[in-house]
Structure formats: structure tokens, C-alpha cells
Amino acid sequence: MPLPKDVMNFRWDMAKVVKNEGHTADLKSLLLDAQKAADGLVPYASLGAHSQNDYFSNMMINNAKINSTQDYSDVDASLIIGGRYSKKIIKTDVPFSVGGMSYGSVKLPAKISLHLALNKLAKNGIKILMNTGEGGALPWEIYGTEKSREKLSKSHWNTILQFTDKLLRANHLEGLDIDELFTREYPLVVQYASGRFWKDPAYLLNADGIEIKIGQGAKIGHGGILPGSKVTELVAENRGILAHKPAHSPSRHLDILGPEDLVAKVLELRELTNWETPIIVKVGASRIYDDMEIILKSYADCATVDGMVGGTGAAPYEVREDIGINTIASLRPIRDAINDYYETHDKDGFKLVVNGGIWDSERIAKTIALGADGVGIGTGFLLAMGCTLIQECHTDICPAGITGSHEKLDVEKSAEGIFNYIKATKIELQNIAGSLGRKKIEDIEMTDISVNNLLTSIVSELPFSDGSNYVSKIQSKIDDSINALNLQGEKI
Amino acid sequence: MRLNEKALIRKSILELCNTGMPRQKSTDDVIRTIREKSSSEKEGNLWEYIIALGAQLSRPPFDPYREKIKLTTKIGRKGDQKISLKIPILIYGKFDLSQSSKDALYLALDNLDDNRSTIGLISKDEPCDERKYPHFQILDDISKLADPDGIVLEYTGVKTEEKIEKIRKEFDGPILVEVDEYFSYYTAKLLELGIDGIVVNTDDIIKSERYKGKHAIAVIHDAKLAINEFYRGKENDGACLVVAGDVNNAGKMVKAAGLGADIIGYDTSLLIAKVGHYSENFFDEEITAQKIFNHMIATKSELTGIPAAVGYSDFHNLSPSDFRTSSIKASVQGNIPLEGVDKTYRNMVEEILEEHVNTKNISVNQQERQKIISLIMKGEN
């Protein structure tokens, strides 16, 4: 909901007093104070945290080109998830995926735009993975393959079609071809989150992968939230919850309180899926070395780590801003945990997917160079659909009609934008790897990247462009101090 | 990421969406150029570079919606004189309020107590007779001692120490002393005289020559160190650190608590009380009181949310080990580990120094090593 006029006025009145009295409060914090004074509620926020240091822009890919006259289309950009313990694998043609954005958090037209764009890409030879988010899946996602519909009774199928009809009519999309809609040609990973927002067991059984969501970068340790204003009758019906009431999923899985519980949960899901489906465990970047150690031992095929700048549909403002570490900073302890694990274990197919503040080819390449096998993108896809960054996804005023409001999203145009975004990002990635002389995207290494400041070198272990690193820079400071203090007869 | 950078990213993505072809320019290069140009203002507010470590697999989080998170704190070192606060906040600030604003504030404080959300007040005014909240009277002159629940004295040197000795004879409640920038020299002495805690106003102290160029986190870190120094080898019997000044939102309060603050001296409620006059054509005491009340209830929820997400059922369990920073300056000033390496910048320099002098066979003794480290740390401030 837009902020009432009296809240805005109160903020400006506070700003006047603050200015007159030389106080330290800033305008943003005064707006939050005015909101709290008006309704007594915790202010919410959306999209990613305003981290002052996300490191990506302090890193350069040495001698790489995103645009090239040379043809690097033979550079292998594929990614395989699964096979460490699962019988099946997910193979995609790009090392990035659509991060979890659930129905409810984004509106139906946005979900359909993604669905249509990913189908079109698959037809054009680019398979890209989509994550459902924690709010359940839509009927055509669950029953989008012939195999998934094989065992359905006629009455069950009719019920699914009736609900689909209701969804489409409510969004003035009844003109869509149902057969085309119920064709899913891209791999789908469903989230198994603490809220258990699904009512159909086929949600788990028909998925290509299952992601146990322990946490997410924007609200680590807090649990998911869908404000009541966004829980429409249809969203509620799809999730199996009450309409118009906020959906607060618990901050932790009630049956996963520690490492042993995670093992038990992974094995439970393995049994449920006959050890066929790849299982992923997702955490926010925080106490990441310890969390990775636990995931590596949990019989999971893959870990997803979400940096603090990873987006959200809704989170308490202070939780979003103040909890979790940056994506790049998380990669050093993650590498340490993986290396320590494989010192005593044989190499297997464990994969690492990293999210948070990654939205273009360069950032994907930088993340892969630092140890990720793939990345997840959320906000990038919202921008491709026309997001204007007003950061009100938790309310009903999205001017682009993606996350709320009565604005109508142009499904065809959005799908076209997503199609182009993915296609161009793949070409840019191939150009980067090709211009570095690599045959595969996964071959981009830390030696291909340099940094421009000390802190980025410390947190990433990357060198400066002159070959020095944070250790040699600090050694120079030590030598300078010894000279300045005249501690040695002979200067260093 | 800053908003202007996000706007650049949006523009760049739209280019990809419209053309379906690779871009000509790297957006990270553009962002880097902008950041380099604005580097002078880069690390002004160090609060923004400090983050808490959320709990997940290695430590389960609590759930603030379904479980009780404790905020209660006590002020006072002796059992019979302790004052209990349900939220670790004492309203304190420099805003000059009219009588009607004060009345609105007093009404809000009473209502908060009725709502099991007791907070206290530090004020120069005489306490109201039928108040429900604890009132700490700022006392310049002992003869003006009314009937407060606690006393705050401003440190003015030896005279303050004499004052404490005198007051202690006739007043049983907690005595706090607001200290100046030299607190590290005399905090132990004050605690020895029996005060119950110190109040540091970070806004005032960072204006002093001694803390020039430093941030509130340096003051909080040093103040906690001064208290800990007194209790070296023994258990703290309840002496508290009250941090006022630049701690005007829940995020800063939680970080201040992690750095060592026991109670926050909070002035936003005073600001709301004062603004009542600006926003209404007439001043309505009840409306203003309701705003102060609402604001505090929301703040209380925020204060429970972060510790719960970090894995604590008690706000006061937050400690420096629960925080990381993405700023070398913040690491140096607050002794906070850097994110990703889990060591303070100082620890890193110490380790590299040790290895460096051994490898190069440089002869420097322990004292000289400390001088080297201090010089490097000074350069990062």
C-alpha cells in the first residue's frame, strides 16, 4: 500500500526538527520511524539489501570481452546438477538459473511470462532451470509433462483444469492455449521450505529437483513472509492456506534442528523419490563454513548459497539490511569447507550454486571463477520484465504489475524480454570464456580475475592487477612502518 | 549495492532485453568508476558495514512470532536497588521539549508500562509523582534531588567523585555517570566508588579531539573495554554500559548491544514528541502519546527479531562474535572480524607480521611489534 499522506508529512516534519537540531538521523530512517509511529508495526522491505560493499565492481576479468567479433558459440556453457547420490541429473545449457520467486510473491502474469520464455528458449536449444520459490507450484509446472499426467484420473485432471481456468480468468489470460501452457520443456526445481506451502504430493514427485530451503540471504534465520494483502483467494487456494492473512513460515524447519536432522530429511526425500531426484540444500550466507560442512555430509547433491544482497518479496527492513554476509565474501569460507571435505573424501559430483547480487555475464563469470558451478538470478528477471526498482514488492503498488497492483503486465512482451536477456547473457558468457582462451565456462579461474582494493583481495583471495595480493600489500605496510619507526639500523 | 548502481544495472539489462545481443560496455566498470570518484564519502557511516550472522544449520534460529525472546534488563549492582526494564531502553536526548510534549511522552511511557513494555527516562526534570516508568534524574545540584528511581551525574572531574560519595549516603537507587572522552582513565575509579554504570553519548564524544575522525563503534568498544578492565579476573556484578547518541534505529541498537552496550539511550521518542507540534494545527497529547507508543512497540518487535534470527532467545546474549564487517575501518575501530575471513584486520596484520619478520629475519621485539601494528591501524582509521 502506498504510504499515507500523514506518514509522509510526519517524516518531513521530523526531518525539519532533525535539521534544526543538528541530529544524526537520515531521511530513510525517519521514514521508517514515521511508519512505525503511525501503525506500530515492523516496517517491511523488498528486493535486496543496500549493502555498501558488494565487491563485484571491485573485481576485473583480465583481458576478457563481453562483446567480440569472434564466434565463441562452441564454448560449453552447460551445467549438471545431481548424480552425486541421485540416479537422475538436471542438465542445463547455461550455468545460471531462475531463482525462487513464488506465485503470490510475484503475480500470475509474471510467472506465465517466465514459463513461456523458458519454453521458447528450450525450443531454441537453451534449457534453463527454474526454481519455484517456497510458495508451491502452478498446475502447469507440476503437470507440464506427459509423464506427470499419465496416472491422473479424469476427475483429478478436470479439477486441475478448473483451477487453471480460474487462475487465467482472474488475470484476463483466458486466451492462452491450454495445451501450450501444459507443456513444460525446462527443468523445474521445487522448494521444500519450512512453511510447506503445497497441498499436492505431485509437487515433490513430479519435480526435476527438490531444494530444501533452510534460509535465504535477505532474511537469514527469519523464515518466509507473504503479507496478507498479497494472499488473494487464488494464492491461498494454490498454497492451501487462509486468504487475506499473512503467511509467515517458521524461521526453521520444525524437524530440522541440526546436522543429523538434515541427513534424515534428505534421506526421507530420497526414499520418497526412489533416489532419482537431485536434492539441493539452500542456505543464506552467514556462518557459511559450518553450514557448508553440514551440507557436504548430508547426502545432498548440491548446495545453494544466497548472499545477503539476494532479493526477497518481503522481509522486515532491519533483518534484510543487517543479517548475512556478502556473496563474494561467502565464497572464501565455502571454498575452504569444500577443500577441507575433499581432503578426506573422493571427489564426487557435488555442485555449488550461488545467488545474490548476480545479474549479468560478468558477475556470473566472477562467481564461477571463485568456485561456484552455477548461479541463480532473481532480480535480473524482474528487471527484464520491466521492474522499476521502487522496491515495494511487499505492497500492492508495483507499477510494472509484476509483484502486485492492478497494473497489467504484457505477458508476450515480458516473455520476449526474458528470452533476449538469457540469450544475450549466454553469448556474453561464451565471449568472456572464449576471449580468455577457455573451452568451457567452468574453466574460468581465479587467475583470470584481479581486484582494485585491499579489502576485496582479503575477502576473495584474489590478486591485484600487478600480481601482488593482500599479504604482500600488508607486508609493504609492515616494512614502511619499520622504516618510519626507525626500528632497524638498516632500512628495508 | 546503492540505488544509483541498481539503476545502472536496470539500464544495462533493458539493453540486453531489447537487443538480445551482447552489450558494448561492462556495467561493473562503470560502477567502479563512479565508486572511485566518490571514495572520499565512502565509509562515513560504519554502522552500514556491520552485519550480524544469522543462524541456520549450525545453530537453529528462534522464531520471534512463535517463541518468547527476552529483552528484560536490570540496572543496579546491588540486589535491593535494581530497576527492571522490559525493553533495554532509556529515553534520553538533547531535544528541548515543551510541557505538552513532555506530558505526551509521560503518558506514552505509562501506557508502555501497562503493556508490559516498560522503558525508562533520563531527564533533568523532576519526576512525576504517579509515574509507572523508572525516571533517572540528571542531577547538577544535589540539593535538587527529588524522588527519582535513579540518578545520572555528568562527569566533571574530582567533584563528581565527591558527589557520588555524598549521594550514596542518602540514595539507594542506581547511579549512572555520563562520561566524557577520557572515560578510559577514570571508569574503574567510578565503579570502585559504587556507581552502577556509565552513559556514553557517542555524538558528543566523537566531536572531541581524542575521537576525531572516529565512529560511534570505536567509543562503544572502548567504553566496554574500560568496564571489562575493572572486572578483569572477576565477574561483572551488574555494572552497565548505556550507549546514547548515534543509536537511533533497531539495527544500530542491536549492533551496539553486540559491541557491549547493555542499554540504549534512545532519542527518537523525544523527536516524535517534539514533532507533535509541527504536524498538528493543535497539539493533541493523546495522539502524540499514541505515536510514541506505536513507535516503541514496533521497535520492540524489531529488537526481538534480530537476536532470534541470530539464534538467541535473549537480546543480551548478543556478543561481538555474532557480527562481521565489510570495512577495514570498522574492523579496526570496533575490533570486529572481517566477513569471509572471520578475523579482525588487526589479527590478520599480527599473523602476517609474525611470518614476515621470521622469514626475513628482522629483529623486532614484542614492544616494537605493537608499535608497528598500532601505526598500521592508525593508517586505516
Can you give a write-up of this model?
The complex is a heterodimer of chains A (492) and B (381). In chain A, 39% of the residues lie in helices and 12% in strands. Chain A has 492 residues and is an alpha/beta fold. Chain A folds into two domains: 5-41, no CATH class; 56-449, TIM Barrel. In chain A, the strands form five sheets. Chain A has an eight-stranded parallel beta sheet with strand order 5-15-14-12-11-8-7-6. Chain A has a two-stranded antiparallel ribbon with strand order 1-13. In chain A, α14 (361-369) links the parallel β14 (351-355) and β15. In chain A, α1 packs across α2. By secondary structure, chain B is an alpha/beta fold. Chain B folds into three domains: 1-42, no CATH class; 73-321, Aldolase class I (TIM Barrel, Alpha-Beta Barrel), CATH 3.20.20.70; 344-381. In chain B, 45% of the residues lie in helices and 12% in strands. Chain B has 13 helices and twelve strands. Chain B has helices spanning 3-19, 27-37, 99-114, 158-170, 183-192, 202-205, 216-230, 250-259, 268-279, 285-310, 328-334, 345-359, 366-380; strands at residues 50-52, 73-75, 83-85, 89-91, 120-123, 135-138, 150-154, 175-178, 197-201, 240-244, 263-266, 323-325. In chain B, a hairpin with a 7-residue loop joins β2 and β3. In chain B, α5 (183-192) packs parallel to α7 and α7 (216-230) packs parallel to α11.
